[in-house]
């Protein structure tokens, strides 16, 4: 399509000299959501190639894990991987470690983990959508969402004392049981939050300007998404009905009733930026449904009963995966006869989802690249680890 | 499909290239494949009607002191079954055929394994470092790795 365009002419009738231009986007560009550098090859305003350069936030997570003195010490490190969804990171690690060690935890631990993970999913989606809205020129949803995210952080703070990096889920249990007023406060939050969700839905999702910016942009077809192993809202936005919580159940997600949200191409094509954003919006309603059921049927139990004092697994390996806010968060642990992990590899969903960016932004406008990047919802802490 | 059935089909198809398997009493059943055959096995695993492993969930490199290993976690979106494939190569000739042409997601995973462990993926279209700077020396996740004193004049150990 680009070749058929006629080159612009000067007043003397000569063709203007046009050539491809390479522009660096990042690592300090606000819409890269952290320290990502994109080398963008531009033909006028049309993107012909994108080469991502990562590693600006590489903190040697996997190397550090090999130098711990115990398996428990890894948990504060996984917290810092995806720093806006620490609970889910911990969950992935403890699910993998418990699989390796064959530890069974009581129902109450499962339920509390699910409540925390779902609250965390909402908190993470609030950042994703809020900042994405800012990228698209909508400032208000960001303020509304951050106000409500604060309430979730207060719930976490009430439970374990920390707002962002919790060290809450331990191998075999939890560091604390939930405080007595937690259930009441969570119910209060849900009532207020539903109003915000409805409000932002009216403000943002069906806003004409927002639709114009996002519909039919950055289309990710189904088979490409699977080939690139995209997961989470990225995959479901492309119309693939797949969610680890339902399709490879861990903890006790199979006890609850909820729906997997998939993109339908309501405003344009299936798998466009609008769809991915909408999947996140609607997923929060489903998370609320899970939390409501979980707090209504919360079983009794001792949350620290199954916590082992000393961990020395039988040599072997285990791959545990959970559905994080960004997709499949996998932790692969290799154990040898020692008290420290021999090797830990984190399969970060943002890292994998980002790898498809070159494919879906070719032929887009430079401004659309910002929309595409916002819709992937990367957290550089997780991409670079 | 169970791990045993997957193993039987692979064994019948590839014979000696399927080295060994551990299917019971492990967290994830795995099959060891001769490194040279991993690409053929992957093509088969993705395209065979009975397998349809269209989703490479994770690819990890690991240093076993003297040997380097690569682990592939495969999953099928349509049939909802999974299997783990493993290959091992000697550290002095760490060549593993790339599976990038089969699953595009392997591109970055393999770059990462090359970057941190120095595994050489044959026929990889763009094998560059991904997390570390291009001029970094050595592969940090190797067990015998020594942290350099200086990097571009900056002191490294803190």
Explain how this protein is built.
The complex is a heterodimer of chains A (385) and B (158). Chain A is an alpha+beta fold and 385 residues long. Helix content of chain A is 45%, strand content 12%. Chain A is built from 15 helices and 8 strands. In chain A, strands 1-2-3 form a 3-stranded antiparallel sheet. In chain A, a hairpin with a 2-residue loop joins strand 2 (37-43) and strand 3 (46-53). In chain A, helix 4 (107-135) runs antiparallel to helix 11 and helix 11 (273-296) runs parallel beside helix 14 (366-376). The mean pLDDT of chain A is 88. Chain B is α/β, with parallel strands linked by helices. Chain B has a single domain (3-143), classed as 2-Layer Sandwich (Beta Polymerase, domain 2), CATH 3.30.460. Chain B has helices spanning 3-14, 38-47, 106-117, and strands at residues 18-22, 30-33, 55-63, 67-75, 82-90, 95-97, 120-122, 150-151, 154-155. In chain B, the strands form 3 sheets. In chain B, strands 1-2-5-4-3 form a 5-stranded mixed sheet. A two-stranded parallel sheet of chain B has the order 6-7. Chain B is elongated and about 55 Å long. The termini of chain B are far apart. The mean pLDDT of chain B is 88. At the A-B interface, helix 1, helix 8, strand 6, strand 7 and strand 8 of A face strand 3 and helix 3 of B.
